[in-house]
Task: inverse folding
């Protein structure tokens, strides 16, 4: 068990493409860190650099108290779960799990004990004599996890391990991974492009975009105070409404004390779930109001999404609990309390309020 | 399978026609001729022909020379298959690594396949030529009294080298394709699992290549049995003292040079049965894939 520390880590490919640009963060011992971002943001490259199957162009990676830049993957004492599971197709489940231990010269009785123990934890005891091709996707996923945990490594690395599973299985495996990680208390770095997975699994969220870190923090802190418009739109579904406005336009939204919008204008953000459509004219004091013409309505059962348009043309999504919603074409006023507003600099790179 | 619909009833037959005609004229017709011929006894000038039943086969089985040639063929085939497969695998594993100008390297390795067997034979014969050959000189300097014109083992070494060299390209291509089919992440997982490159090769790569290897073993045996006629004829003509005579060469030697058409036909029928057997094995296993 050990902390994983990245210091100004960069990756430049042979063709000159800069996949990772000076990333630094520390995953505390036993913590669950999720790297999240759109495809091509460098999160998988970063994970592969921690694993040692991708070289490090600049900066240092430390696992425990060792800088591992020049250490072979085998000697880094980490285990990795791959997106396509990467099971050895010609070996039985038992041998798949025992392979890493055999390579390290673990005595036979201990291998047996550890494989059985891991199989019991993951409930794959009855599959030990099967070949990977005889298993379902979910079972293969479990074997891949088993292969990681038998080694009792210092850190687990997960590379989008759930993206090949169907939606239902993904949810249940997500819960199990979390439970397992809690029980083993092994430092974990988990890569995903799915913000829901990221929010539910992470102790520490690292949001990446175009090779850079956009924000690091606890999932709810990131949700509540996104550092940039990128994070604001990436974390949370449906994404935050982001409205670029001049100073005058922004100040006109609010009653009472001014918002303090800078001269060059700002991007005003409000989450769909923070907007309400109050019936009657009564508008809570100190709130903002967006005048909308209702377009599409999506009812998904427990909640309803209302897609409206402002007179200026900006689309705004309102998320309402239940199934009551205005009719399409109706004009409504979407209201949010002042403290739920997010304000970003005009270029979206900086958070101004809160 | 997709079912095609033809507008005219005869069109499918017309389309199949040329292929069937070629198969019948160049395969079935000579094959039937050979089977018929193997029951006949003809004098050297073709003036009289007599039906003798299985006598040609009986003579063959009673002939110690035939077994000598059979053993020769087995040794030759085994050596050619082992040498060309292992060298091709070695080269393919090296060429599979990310290399600068890897494409050039791979292309150059495929070239020998385009060399005609007889030309390959002449090239190697020249290199091994006792008084002029480059390789022969090297061997002499190593203290070997190199003389493939007199020493049967030397002659065998020479034809094996040429035949194996020519087959390396073919094997290389298949091994390269087989290696490309192994998912990168499986090898990465093995690296993280602490397997050294050598161990990774023997415990992961080699077993995963087994379907390709099995296919190539069959193909190489067929090659060594039947397609090396040109090499042997150009290099040693089966000599010295029949030390490099294979079954196919004996068919040619006895029938064409020796004038024993019946005996030669009987030999080719036996060879035909062998090919059918090998092909059957190949289809049976390649269809089902070697299980891993």
Result:
């Amino acid at each position: 068990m050990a902390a994983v520390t990245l210091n100004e880590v960069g990756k430049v490919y042979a063709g000159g493409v800069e996949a990772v640009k000076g990333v630094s963060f520390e995953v505390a011992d036993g913590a669950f860190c999720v790297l999240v971002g759109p495809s091509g943001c460098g999160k998988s490259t970063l994970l592969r650099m921690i694993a040692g199957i991708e070289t490090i162009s600049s900066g240092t990676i430390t696992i425990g108290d060792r800088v591992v830049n020049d250490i072979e993957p085998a000697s880094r004492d980490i285990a990795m779960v791959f997106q396509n599971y990467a099971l050895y197709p010609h070996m039985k489940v038992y041998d798949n799990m025992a392979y890493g231990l055999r390579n390290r010269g673990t005595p036979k009785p201990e291998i047996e004990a550890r494989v059985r123990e891991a199989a019991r934890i993951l409930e794959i005891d009855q599959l030990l004599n099967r070949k990977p091709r005889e298993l379902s996707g979910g079972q293969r996923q479990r074997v891949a996890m088993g292969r990681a945990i038998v080694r009792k490594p210092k850190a687990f690395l997960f590379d989008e391990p759930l993206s090949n599973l169907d939606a239902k299985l993904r949810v249940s495996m997500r819960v199990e991974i979390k439970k397992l990680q809690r029980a083993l208390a092994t430092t974990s770095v988990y890569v995903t492009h799915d913000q829901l997975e990221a929010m539910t699994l992470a102790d520490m969220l690292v949001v990446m975009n175009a090779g850079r870190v956009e924000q690091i923090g606890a999932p709810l802190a990131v949700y509540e105070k996104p550092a940039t418009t990128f994070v604001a739109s990436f974390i949370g579904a449906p994404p935050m409404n982001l409205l670029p406005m001049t100073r005058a336009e922004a100040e006109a939204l609010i009653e009472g004390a001014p918002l303090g919008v800078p001269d060059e204008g700002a991007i005003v953000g409000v989450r769909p779930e923070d907007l309400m459509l109050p019936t009657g004219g009564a508008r809570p004091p100190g709130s903002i109001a967006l005048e909308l013409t209702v377009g599409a309505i999506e009812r998904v059962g427990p909640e309803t999404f209302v897609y409206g348009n402002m007179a200026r043309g900006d689309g705004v999504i309102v998320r309402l609990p239940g199934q009551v919603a205005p009719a399409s074409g109706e004009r409504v006023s979407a209201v949010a309390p002042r403290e739920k507003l997010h304000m970003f600099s005009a270029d979206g790179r900086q958070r101004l309020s809160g | 399978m997709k079912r095609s619909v033809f507008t005219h009833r005869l069109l499918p037959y017309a389309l199949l026609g040329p292929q069937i005609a070629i198969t019948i004229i160049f395969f079935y017709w000579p094959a039937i001729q050979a089977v018929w011929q193997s029951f006949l006894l003809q004098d050297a000038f073709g003036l009289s022909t007599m039906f003798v039943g299985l006598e040609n086969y009986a003579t063959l089985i009673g002939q110690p020379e035939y077994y000598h040639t059979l053993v020769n063929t087995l040794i030759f085939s085994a050596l050619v298959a082992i040498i060309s497969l292992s060298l091709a695998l070695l080269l393919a594993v090296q060429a599979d690594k990310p290399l600068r100008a890897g494409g050039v390297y791979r292309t150059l390795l495929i070239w020998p396949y385009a060399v005609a067997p007889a030309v390959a034979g002449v090239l190697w014969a020249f290199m091994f030529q006792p008084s002029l050959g480059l390789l022969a000189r090297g061997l002499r300097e190593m203290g070997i009294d190199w003389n493939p014109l007199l020493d049967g083992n030397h002659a065998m070494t020479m034809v094996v080298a040429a035949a194996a060299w020519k087959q390396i390209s073919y094997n290389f291509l298949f091994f390269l394709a087989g290696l490309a089919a192994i998912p990168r992440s499986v090898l990465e997982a093995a690296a993280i699992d602490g397997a050294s490159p050598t161990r990774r090769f023997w415990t992961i790569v080699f077993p995963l290549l087994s379907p390709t290897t099995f296919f190539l073993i069959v193909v190489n045996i067929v090659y060594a049995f039947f397609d090396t006629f040109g090499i042997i004829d150009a290099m040693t003509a089966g000599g010295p003292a029949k030390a490099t005579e294979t079954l196919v060469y004996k068919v040619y030697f006895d029938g064409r040079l020796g004038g024993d058409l019946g005996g030669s036909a009987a030999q080719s029928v036996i060879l035909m049965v062998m090919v059918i057997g090998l092909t059957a094995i190949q289809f049976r296993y390649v269809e089902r894939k070697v299980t891993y």
About this structure: Chain B touches chain A at residues 183, 185-186, 188-196, 199, 203-204, 207-208, 210, 292 (CB under 8 Å). The domain at 64-288 of chain B is CATH 1.10.3720.10 (MetI-like fold).
